Amino acid sequence: MSTVHITDCGLPGIRDIPYGVHMCHFYDGREELAAVLVPYFAAGLRNNERCIWITADPLDEAQARLELQKAGFDPQAEERKGSLTIQSHAQWYAGAEGLKGNEIVGLWLAEEGRALADGFNGLRITGNVSFVSADAWPVFMEYEATLDSSLHGHRIVTLCSYPLSRSRATDVFDVVHRHHCTLDHPDHGWQILTAEPRYAR
What pTM was estimated for this model as a whole? Predict the structure, then answer.
């Protein structure tokens, strides 16, 4: 297992990121979502990290596997090796129903422990949160805040995906302030923001 505390984000313009980082981004449609998550996971697979991709509309499990395949990977082989898990949010969070934020974070930390015990360099995760309803939003933001404060010192890289079309200005504010940083893609390439992104409205 590597003891280096830096890994590759995978996105053009953003290379080195620290383990323990909790990132977010806002996307507009399936193609834009895939354009972020495929290189993100490709970098994780190349770096011997266990990758967990939690899917939701507009990019489901089958489409996620197809996108990875188009990028030159064999998703089924990676899943057999234990280096990749692709599941829908309904499958992944089914066992977490009723749990509080710190308990869900505990599930992620347990996944990290298993990954390291199996010889992986770390854990790389993402969740597309398009499934979160308005009623569930406050509880989910509590979870994001708990996760944000819990990752220091852990070999976990997290990227949370939020649909731009459903994000009000107040939602953007909530999300940005519960993550270490926001990834943005203006015309000249990817960059890391620590303040409210350009598309808040």
Answer: 0.90
